Amino acid sequence: MLTGIPAKSRGALAVAGFVMGVLTGGGAALAHEVSPSVADIEIQAGVLQMRLRINPEALIAGINLDVVSDTNEAVQANDYDVLRALPPEALNARIKAHWPQLAHGVAVLIDGADAPLTLDEIVIEDPGSEEVARAATLRLTGDVPPRAKAMQLSWGAGYGTLILRQAGVDAPYTGTLSGGQISPEIALSGGSAIGGWSAFGQYIPVGFEHILPLGLDHILFVLGLFFLSVRLRPLLWQVSAFTLAHTVTLALGAMGWVNVPGTIVEPLIAASIVYVALENVFLGHLTRFRPVVIFGFGLLHGLGFASVLGEFGLPDGQFVPALIGFNVGVELGQLTVIALAFLVVGAWFRDKPWYQARIATPASLVIAAVGAYWFVERVFV
User: Fold this and answer.
1) Total structural domains in the chain?
2) Do 54 and 164 have their domain in common?
3) If 194 and its partner were Cys, which of 133, 198, 330, 340 is the partner (CB 3.0–4.6 Å)?
4) What is the distance between the alpha carbons of residues 332 and 212, in angstroms, rounded to a whole number?
5) Contact between residue 305 and residue 330 where contact means Cβ atoms under 8 Å apart
6) 123 vs 95, 110, 139, 186, 241, CA distance in Å?
7) Among residues 193, 228, 255, which one ends one of the domains?
8) In this predicted model, what pLDDT tens digit does every residue of 65-76 receive, in sequence order?
9) Of 193, 217, 246, at which residue does a domain stop?
10) Alpha helices in the chain (DSSP H)
């Protein structure tokens, strides 16, 4: 496909295409990245009460959240932006008007029979900026027949990930659903808490998705480690230091022992991307201090992972298996990024004498520029 083009030019084109593919694949910005929906269900005095937290603009605009993580990537992005600009009162009215269509994707079954839900209240959150996706919490209620034993929740195709949590009983159910799935039967009296292996398995894709495709900042940091050298030994030192560090703070953050505001963590993560990329440019080799520095940056990234995991919550009684599953998913995502980078760039150009000048340096400069932009955006915007 690139025959007739000099090898050096093919290398430059490959790295430019790869880095730009990462950037465009992850969205030009993180501003409209959509969080998973959350449904908290409790039954009191024969009434099912559900608090459903959604991204209303994305669902009303018809964006397929099963395949889109950032609304800027969707063909309905303009429709979303118009809805995002509405004041809370106007959006509240749009949600009420659109609820009959949305309700088709939020179906509750009690002992196999449909249990109609009534929309009682809508609370619109204020994220503080139009450039940030906002959420709405819908309070829904439905009647539960006497002597009912079990329920299921069906989640609509295109609605994205849902965290389903049962409350008010012993051993409550906590799990995740993808668009188009239906939950297992959940005992109304409790006792449906998932087992350790189920929790472990459910949270692996959650961790993986936080890297691919959702974790563009983490992807660029890992690429910064890769472009220092595609050789195994220096790459192994760096990735090992990063993995160890973010595992520590992920666990501490998930347990609530460490809590650093995102307004501090997110700019520092952007700064870490800039530092690693510029060190690639000005040093170009692994120093004995770099793994130590990367360990420090890994602590920051672990706090970022913990904040995402906090949105999902961890099932009661299966905290450790779910946490391990999430971390395994993160590691698999990072290894996938490195494998793709090697297949696209390293396998073809790593032995070329001009690799550093034509591949590693330009890629690192692009990564540094993006990190610097994010740092300014996260501090001043």
Assistant:
1) 2
2) yes
3) 198
4) 10
5) yes
6) 11, 27, 8, 27, 43
7) 193
8) 888 767 777 889
9) 193
10) 7-25, 56-60, 77-84, 88-102, 196-211, 216-228, 232-254, 262-282, 290-312, 319-341, 347-349, 355, 361-380
pLDDT at 118: 95
Q: What is the DSSP letter of 1?
A: -
Rounded to 5°, the CA angle 288-290-295 comes to 120
Considering the domain boundaries, does residue 238 fall inside one?
A: yes
- The tokens of 373 are what? 């932009």
Q: Are residues 324 and 340 in the same domain?
A: yes
Question: Is 199 a member of any domain?
Answer: no
Residue 131 belongs to a domain: yes
Q: Where are the beta strands (DSSP E) in the chain?
A: 37-44, 47-54, 106-110, 113-114, 118-124, 136-143, 150-155, 162-166, 174-177, 186-187
Query: By residue range, what is the domain housing residue 124?
Result: 37-193
| Residues 80 and 61: beta-carbon distance below 8 Å | yes
User: Does residue 191 or residue 114 have the better pLDDT?
Assistant: 114
Least-confidence region, from 77-91, 274-288, 327-341: 274-288
pTM, two decimals, is: 0.66
pLDDT at residue 19 tops 70: no
pLDDT of the residue at 124: 94
Spatial separation of the C-alpha atoms in residues 217 and 301, rounded to whole Å: 9
Tens-place pLDDT, residues 264-319: 888 898 899 999 999 888 886 767 788 888 899 889 888 888 877 776 666 666 77
